[in-house]
Amino acid sequence: MTPLDPIRVGPLDLPNRIVMAPLGRARAHPVTREPTPSVVRYYTQRATAGLIVSEATHVSADSVSRPGTSAVHTDGQVAAWQAVTSAVHAAGGRIFQQLFHLGRKADPARLPLGGLPPAPSAIAAKGEFSTPEGPRPFPVPRALAMDEIPQQIDAFRLAAQNSKRAGFDGVEVHGANGFLIDQFLRDGANKRTDRFGGSIENRARFLIEVVDAVSDVFGADRVGVRLSPHHRGDGTDDSTPVETFGYVTKVLSARRIAYLHLIEPVDTAPAHQLGPALRKAFRGPLIVCGGLHRSSAWQALAEGRSDLVAFGAGFIANPDLVERLRRNAPWNPPDPSTFYSGGDRGYTDYPFLDAALSGE
User: Fold this and answer.
1) Which pLDDT does position 221 carry in this prediction?
2) 1 belongs to a structural domain
3) pLDDT over 90 at 113, yes or no
4) Are 170 and 258 in contact (CB under 8 A)?
């Protein structure tokens, strides 16, 4: 089994096992958060991926970060995303939309009604976020009241409905990287004592109810979930990660979702790897992501540690990454200074292989 072999994921037949990981690039309209024509071109250039997972997309107006991040809660945003999916499909690609809510990592100054961002508990994330005035510490969020939690779940449901209207092939629930769902899941960020806190089963409830809500829209076989059990830099950590993520994986497996997307850095020490245990617990396709290159991707599949492999920076700098992997050709190096800079430089202007080899 190699990354170039076909695979079926849910109802989709993928021509290869190479996934374009979700990559926030801050290229949407700075005010409306609608994808621009450059965003259409960017995704279309990468349509040879077996599956594209879109950048993390805000499900509501109270999940707000830097200008240029995209959203899918207005008609204008839906229409703009329709241009993306239509172009990707015309190029022969398949694309899921990643849905997320920032939770306590939202920027209070950008919230539509002001106030503090919502979270499971009133605990600030560690670190800082970018503002026009420079970096600022994350604020202490407000703990969601019990009657507000169904509203947050409904925001994901509505976003999934909008994703479907926009023509996406499915959605990926972003349960990783210290955002709202991950905040509920981990006991370092969730100190609730009600049915959404305390035990692993209770802390996982928010994620599972979101998955059920979006599955009602797309069907479970068009829903993926992304998890990051090793993420803890912002204080979103867990005292029993093996048990927490083992439980979540078993519940998701029972729901027969399209895939599980696991972030496990390639340099994770064997004693700390969770991938092998989660691989056994999950009966569907497993995507592994985390600094993979050609040799490590081939190895992950050859050893049966994953069914698909996801690349982030590789796809940023190489729109034809699949062909480069096929031909064992060199990769363009990414320019980190342009990751979130806006404009087409470092976004849609990386050379394709044939042009790079010819010196064009």
Assistant:
1) 98
2) no
3) no
4) yes
- DSSP state letter for 318: -
Place of tokens 């349509």: 47
Determine the number of helices (DSSP H) and then strands (DSSP E) in the chain. 12, 15
**Encoded tokens for 164:** 């479907």
Please report whether residue 2 resides in a domain: no
List Cβ neighbours of 99 (8 Å cut-off, separation of 6 or more).
Answer: 56, 57, 59, 72, 156, 159, 160, 163, 171, 172, 173, 174, 214
220 within domain boundaries: yes
Range 65-88 burial, b when 16+ CB lie within 10 A, else e: bebbbbbbbeeebbebbbbbbebb
Section 149-161 average pLDDT? 98
Domain that holds residue 76: 7-358
Q: Give the C-alpha separation, 212 to 201, whole Å.
A: 15
Q: What is the DSSP letter of 351?
A: P
In a domain, residue 80? The reply is yes
Beta-sheet pairing, 136-137 with 128-129: antiparallel
Asked if 348 and 43 touch (Cβ cutoff 8 Å), the reply is no
Report the alpha-carbon distance of residue 62 to residue 106 in Å, rounded: 8
Q: Where are the beta strands (DSSP E) in the chain?
A: 7-9, 12-14, 18-20, 51-53, 57-58, 95-100, 118-119, 128-129, 136-137, 142-143, 170-174, 223-227, 259-263, 286-289, 308-311
Domain count, the chain: 1
Map tokens 């035990």 to a residue: 199
Q: Write down the pLDDT at residue 115.
A: 85
> Nearest 5°: phi and psi at 301?
-75, -40
**Which one-letter amino acid corresponds to residue 268?**
T
* Measured CA distances, 29 to 25, 135, 193 (Å): 12, 22, 40
Tell me, yes or no, if the pTM score tops 0.85. Answer: yes
Structure tokens at 317: 């700098």
Which CATH number covers residue 298? 3.20.20.70
- CA angle 2/306/46 to nearest 5° reads 60
Task: Retrieve residue 105's tokens.
Answer: 């990592």
323-350, pLDDT tens digit by residue?
Answer: 999 999 999 999 999 999 999 999 999 9
Tell me which amino acid residue 154 is.
Answer: D
54: its two tokens: 């879109």
342's tokens? 């806006």
